[in-house]
Protein backbone atom coordinates (compact mmCIF):
# COMPACT_ATOMS: atom_id res chain seq x y z
CA UNK A 1 0.00 0.00 0.00
CA UNK A 2 1.18 3.53 -0.76
CA UNK A 3 2.16 5.03 2.57
CA UNK A 4 1.33 8.59 1.54
CA UNK A 5 -1.98 10.18 0.68
CA UNK A 6 -2.18 10.30 -3.10
CA UNK A 7 -3.61 13.47 -4.55
CA UNK A 8 -6.93 12.60 -6.22
CA UNK A 9 -8.39 15.95 -7.14
CA UNK A 10 -7.42 19.55 -6.62
CA UNK A 11 -9.45 20.84 -3.73
CA UNK A 12 -8.67 22.76 -0.58
CA UNK A 13 -8.94 20.91 2.67
CA UNK A 14 -8.35 21.60 6.34
CA UNK A 15 -6.73 19.42 8.95
CA UNK A 16 -8.34 19.68 12.33
CA UNK A 17 -5.95 19.53 15.27
CA UNK A 18 -7.28 18.35 18.61
CA UNK A 19 -5.25 19.73 21.47
CA UNK A 20 -5.57 17.89 24.76
CA UNK A 21 -4.07 18.91 28.09
CA UNK A 22 -1.20 16.70 29.21
CA UNK A 23 -0.28 15.75 32.74
CA UNK A 24 3.14 16.63 34.06
CA UNK A 25 4.95 13.79 35.87
CA UNK A 26 6.06 16.17 38.61
CA UNK A 27 2.51 16.77 39.90
CA UNK A 28 2.02 16.45 43.62
CA UNK A 29 -0.91 14.85 45.37
CA UNK A 30 -3.80 17.34 45.82
CA UNK A 31 -3.26 19.30 49.02
CA UNK A 32 0.48 18.57 49.13
CA UNK A 33 3.36 20.95 48.45
CA UNK A 34 4.55 20.60 44.84
CA UNK A 35 7.56 22.92 44.94
CA UNK A 36 10.41 23.82 47.26
CA UNK A 37 12.06 26.83 45.67
CA UNK A 38 12.77 25.74 42.11
CA UNK A 39 12.70 22.01 42.99
CA UNK A 40 9.74 19.82 42.08
CA UNK A 41 8.38 17.38 44.68
CA UNK A 42 6.48 14.66 42.79
CA UNK A 43 4.15 12.36 44.71
CA UNK A 44 4.83 10.03 46.58
CA UNK A 45 7.85 11.95 47.91
CA UNK A 46 8.36 14.58 50.58
CA UNK A 47 10.76 17.52 50.57
CA UNK A 48 13.95 15.70 49.53
CA UNK A 49 16.36 16.65 46.76
CA UNK A 50 16.82 14.81 43.45
CA UNK A 51 14.24 12.03 43.63
CA UNK A 52 12.67 10.68 40.44
CA UNK A 53 9.37 8.78 40.08
CA UNK A 54 11.29 6.55 37.65
CA UNK A 55 12.88 4.68 40.56
CA UNK A 56 16.10 6.43 41.50
CA UNK A 57 17.42 9.18 43.73
CA UNK A 58 20.69 11.07 43.61
CA UNK A 59 23.00 11.81 46.55
CA UNK A 60 26.47 13.36 46.82
CA UNK A 61 29.49 11.50 48.20
CA UNK A 62 33.18 12.33 48.62
CA UNK A 63 36.21 10.47 47.28
CA UNK A 64 38.51 8.31 49.37
CA UNK A 65 42.13 9.41 49.14
CA UNK A 66 45.66 8.37 50.07
CA UNK A 67 48.36 11.03 49.67
CA UNK A 68 52.08 10.30 50.05
CA UNK A 69 55.18 12.35 50.90
CA UNK A 70 58.82 11.82 49.98
CA UNK A 71 59.31 9.56 53.02
CA UNK A 72 56.63 7.20 51.76
CA UNK A 73 54.22 8.06 54.55
CA UNK A 74 50.59 8.59 53.66
CA UNK A 75 47.66 10.58 54.90
CA UNK A 76 44.47 8.87 53.94
CA UNK A 77 40.73 8.88 54.33
CA UNK A 78 38.62 5.88 53.39
CA UNK A 79 35.04 6.60 52.39
CA UNK A 80 31.80 4.70 52.21
CA UNK A 81 28.06 4.71 52.71
CA UNK A 82 25.80 2.19 54.43
CA UNK A 83 22.07 2.29 53.76
CA UNK A 84 19.28 0.19 55.23
CA UNK A 85 16.68 0.80 52.52
CA UNK A 86 18.25 1.91 49.24
CA UNK A 87 20.57 -0.22 47.08
CA UNK A 88 23.27 1.50 45.06
CA UNK A 89 22.28 1.33 41.40
CA UNK A 90 24.36 -1.28 39.58
CA UNK A 91 23.37 0.12 36.16
CA UNK A 92 23.81 3.87 36.75
CA UNK A 93 27.09 4.04 38.71
CA UNK A 94 30.75 3.20 38.17
CA UNK A 95 33.52 2.65 40.69
CA UNK A 96 36.35 4.96 39.62
CA UNK A 97 39.99 5.29 40.68
CA UNK A 98 42.60 7.92 39.82
CA UNK A 99 46.37 7.61 40.18
CA UNK A 100 49.58 6.33 38.62
CA UNK A 101 50.48 3.85 41.37
CA UNK A 102 47.04 2.90 42.54
CA UNK A 103 45.04 -0.15 43.49
CA UNK A 104 41.54 0.87 44.52
CA UNK A 105 38.88 -1.47 45.75
CA UNK A 106 35.35 -1.22 47.06
CA UNK A 107 34.15 -3.65 49.72
CA UNK A 108 30.73 -4.27 51.14
CA UNK A 109 28.09 -6.78 52.04
CA UNK A 110 25.11 -8.16 50.13
CA UNK A 111 24.38 -11.13 52.34
CA UNK A 112 28.04 -12.06 51.96
CA UNK A 113 31.20 -10.00 51.72
CA UNK A 114 32.18 -8.82 48.26
CA UNK A 115 35.18 -6.94 46.93
CA UNK A 116 35.88 -5.47 43.51
CA UNK A 117 38.23 -2.83 42.21
CA UNK A 118 40.69 -1.79 39.53
CA UNK A 119 44.35 -0.93 38.94
CA UNK A 120 45.77 2.17 37.31
CA UNK A 121 49.47 2.79 36.58
CA UNK A 122 51.62 5.23 34.63
CA UNK A 123 55.22 6.44 34.86
CA UNK A 124 54.59 9.82 33.28
CA UNK A 125 51.68 11.77 31.87
CA UNK A 126 52.66 11.26 28.22
CA UNK A 127 50.43 8.23 27.77
CA UNK A 128 47.60 9.49 29.95
CA UNK A 129 44.58 10.56 27.91
CA UNK A 130 41.96 13.09 28.95
CA UNK A 131 38.53 11.49 29.19
CA UNK A 132 39.88 7.92 29.25
CA UNK A 133 39.59 5.56 32.23
CA UNK A 134 41.17 2.50 30.63
CA UNK A 135 43.78 1.86 33.37
CA UNK A 136 46.40 4.49 32.57
CA UNK A 137 45.88 7.24 35.14
CA UNK A 138 42.25 6.32 35.62
CA UNK A 139 40.26 3.08 35.79
CA UNK A 140 36.62 2.12 36.23
CA UNK A 141 34.57 -0.97 37.00
CA UNK A 142 30.91 -1.78 37.65
CA UNK A 143 29.10 -2.12 40.98
CA UNK A 144 27.49 -5.48 41.90
CA UNK A 145 23.71 -5.80 42.24
CA UNK A 146 21.83 -5.38 45.53
CA UNK A 147 24.62 -3.49 47.31
CA UNK A 148 23.38 -1.29 50.16
CA UNK A 149 26.73 -0.35 51.61
CA UNK A 150 30.36 -0.07 50.63
CA UNK A 151 33.74 1.18 51.77
CA UNK A 152 36.39 2.46 49.36
CA UNK A 153 40.03 1.60 50.18
CA UNK A 154 43.30 2.42 48.41
CA UNK A 155 46.79 0.96 48.29
CA UNK A 156 50.00 1.61 46.37
CA UNK A 157 52.82 -0.64 45.22
CA UNK A 158 55.62 1.91 45.66
CA UNK A 159 54.00 4.64 47.79
CA UNK A 160 53.94 6.83 44.66
CA UNK A 161 57.75 7.13 44.93
CA UNK A 162 58.28 7.09 41.15
CA UNK A 163 55.40 9.45 40.34
CA UNK A 164 55.42 11.75 43.35
CA UNK A 165 56.31 14.87 41.37
CA UNK A 166 53.13 14.72 39.26
CA UNK A 167 50.85 12.36 41.22
CA UNK A 168 51.16 12.38 45.01
CA UNK A 169 47.67 11.00 45.70
CA UNK A 170 45.37 8.12 44.83
CA UNK A 171 41.60 8.63 44.74
CA UNK A 172 38.68 6.23 44.65
CA UNK A 173 34.94 6.92 44.49
CA UNK A 174 31.60 5.65 43.25
CA UNK A 175 30.03 8.06 40.77
CA UNK A 176 27.01 8.27 38.51
CA UNK A 177 27.89 6.85 35.10
CA UNK A 178 28.77 9.72 32.76
CA UNK A 179 28.95 12.35 35.52
CA UNK A 180 32.75 12.29 35.85
CA UNK A 181 35.13 13.25 33.05
CA UNK A 182 38.75 12.37 33.80
CA UNK A 183 41.42 15.00 33.22
CA UNK A 184 45.21 14.57 33.36
CA UNK A 185 45.27 17.60 35.68
CA UNK A 186 43.41 15.57 38.32
CA UNK A 187 46.56 13.50 38.93
CA UNK A 188 48.30 16.50 40.50
CA UNK A 189 45.21 18.17 42.01
CA UNK A 190 45.66 18.11 45.79
CA UNK A 191 42.21 19.63 46.26
CA UNK A 192 40.49 16.73 44.49
CA UNK A 193 39.67 15.20 47.88
CA UNK A 194 37.35 18.15 48.56
CA UNK A 195 35.13 17.38 45.58
CA UNK A 196 31.85 15.48 45.81
CA UNK A 197 30.30 13.19 43.23
CA UNK A 198 26.72 12.16 42.44
CA UNK A 199 25.72 8.57 43.24
CA UNK A 200 22.43 7.04 42.10
CA UNK A 201 20.42 4.93 44.53
CA UNK A 202 17.46 2.78 43.54
CA UNK A 203 14.16 3.00 45.37
CA UNK A 204 11.07 0.79 45.17
CA UNK A 205 7.62 0.46 46.68
CA UNK A 206 7.72 -1.93 49.66
CA UNK A 207 9.33 -5.35 49.46
CA UNK A 208 6.64 -7.30 47.60
CA UNK A 209 6.58 -8.45 44.00
CA UNK A 210 3.93 -7.10 41.64
CA UNK A 211 1.99 -10.35 41.94
CA UNK A 212 2.01 -10.14 45.73
CA UNK A 213 1.17 -6.42 45.83
CA UNK A 214 -1.87 -6.82 43.55
CA UNK A 215 -3.39 -9.18 46.12
CA UNK A 216 -3.77 -6.17 48.46
CA UNK A 217 -5.57 -3.55 46.33
CA UNK A 218 -5.95 -1.01 49.15
CA UNK A 219 -2.16 -0.69 49.45
CA UNK A 220 -1.31 -1.29 45.79
CA UNK A 221 0.50 1.83 44.53
CA UNK A 222 -0.07 1.64 40.76
CA UNK A 223 -3.12 3.63 39.64
CA UNK A 224 -5.27 3.67 36.50
CA UNK A 225 -3.55 3.28 33.12
CA UNK A 226 -0.29 2.20 34.75
CA UNK A 227 1.69 -1.03 34.87
CA UNK A 228 3.63 -2.70 37.68
CA UNK A 229 7.31 -3.59 37.22
CA UNK A 230 9.25 -5.88 39.55
CA UNK A 231 12.47 -4.28 40.80
CA UNK A 232 15.76 -5.51 39.34
CA UNK A 233 17.99 -4.46 42.21
CA UNK A 234 16.34 -6.00 45.26
CA UNK A 235 12.79 -6.48 46.52
CA UNK A 236 9.82 -4.23 45.77
CA UNK A 237 8.20 -2.85 42.64
CA UNK A 238 7.75 0.31 40.57
CA UNK A 239 4.88 1.74 38.55
CA UNK A 240 4.92 3.29 35.08
CA UNK A 241 2.29 4.69 32.77
CA UNK A 242 1.33 2.25 30.02
CA UNK A 243 2.11 3.07 26.39
CA UNK A 244 0.06 5.97 25.12
CA UNK A 245 -0.23 7.59 28.56
CA UNK A 246 2.07 9.90 30.50
CA UNK A 247 2.27 11.43 33.95
CA UNK A 248 2.62 10.19 37.51
CA UNK A 249 1.51 6.54 37.88
CA UNK A 250 1.27 6.83 41.68
CA UNK A 251 -1.49 9.47 41.57
CA UNK A 252 -5.19 8.81 41.01
CA UNK A 253 -5.76 9.79 37.36
CA UNK A 254 -2.06 10.61 37.20
CA UNK A 255 -1.51 8.77 33.91
CA UNK A 256 -3.24 10.88 31.27
CA UNK A 257 -3.67 10.18 27.59
CA UNK A 258 -0.72 11.33 25.50
CA UNK A 259 -1.66 13.26 22.38
CA UNK A 260 0.62 11.47 19.91
CA UNK A 261 -0.80 13.56 17.08
CA UNK A 262 0.57 16.73 18.63
CA UNK A 263 3.77 15.21 20.04
CA UNK A 264 4.88 12.74 17.36
CA UNK A 265 3.20 14.20 14.27
CA UNK A 266 3.14 10.76 12.62
CA UNK A 267 0.65 11.45 9.85
CA UNK A 268 0.93 13.02 6.42
CA UNK A 269 -2.87 13.19 6.41
CA UNK A 270 -5.22 13.64 9.35
CA UNK A 271 -4.22 12.33 12.78
CA UNK A 272 -6.90 11.05 15.15
CA UNK A 273 -5.97 10.81 18.82
CA UNK A 274 -7.70 8.05 20.82
CA UNK A 275 -7.31 7.03 24.49
CA UNK A 276 -3.87 5.44 24.65
CA UNK A 277 -3.38 5.37 20.89
CA UNK A 278 -3.96 7.17 17.56
CA UNK A 279 -4.48 6.50 13.87
CA UNK A 280 -4.02 8.29 10.57
CA UNK A 281 -6.40 8.79 7.67
CA UNK A 282 -6.51 10.72 4.43
CA UNK A 283 -8.80 13.71 4.11
CA UNK A 284 -11.69 13.61 1.66
CA UNK A 285 -10.45 13.64 -1.91
CA UNK A 286 -7.26 11.68 -1.14
CA UNK A 287 -6.43 8.00 -0.95
CA UNK A 288 -3.82 6.01 1.00
CA UNK A 289 -3.35 5.33 4.70
CA UNK A 290 -2.26 8.79 5.83
CA UNK A 291 1.00 7.71 7.49
CA UNK A 292 4.30 9.46 6.90
CA UNK A 293 6.24 6.18 6.68
Explain this structure.
InterPro entries: EGF, EGF-like_Ca-bd_dom, EGF-type_Asp/Asn_hydroxyl_site, EGF_Ca-bd_CS, NOTCH1_EGF-like. It holds the Pfam family EGF_CA. This is EGF-like domain-containing protein. One of its GO terms (molecular function) is calcium ion binding. It comes from Gossypium klotzschianum. The chain is built from two helices and 22 strands. The chain has 293 residues and is an all-beta fold. The chain has a five-stranded antiparallel beta sheet, with no helix packed on it. A four-stranded antiparallel beta sheet has the order 8-13-10-11, with no helix packed on it. A three-stranded antiparallel beta sheet has the order 4-5-15, with no helix packed on it. The longest helix has 4 residues. The N terminus is likely disordered. It folds into two domains: 135 residues, no CATH class; 146 residues, no CATH class. The protein is elongated. The N and C termini lie close together (11 Å). Strand 10 and strand 11 form a beta hairpin.
In short:
Keywords: Disulfide bond, EGF-like domain, Repeat, Signal. By secondary structure, this protein is mainly β.
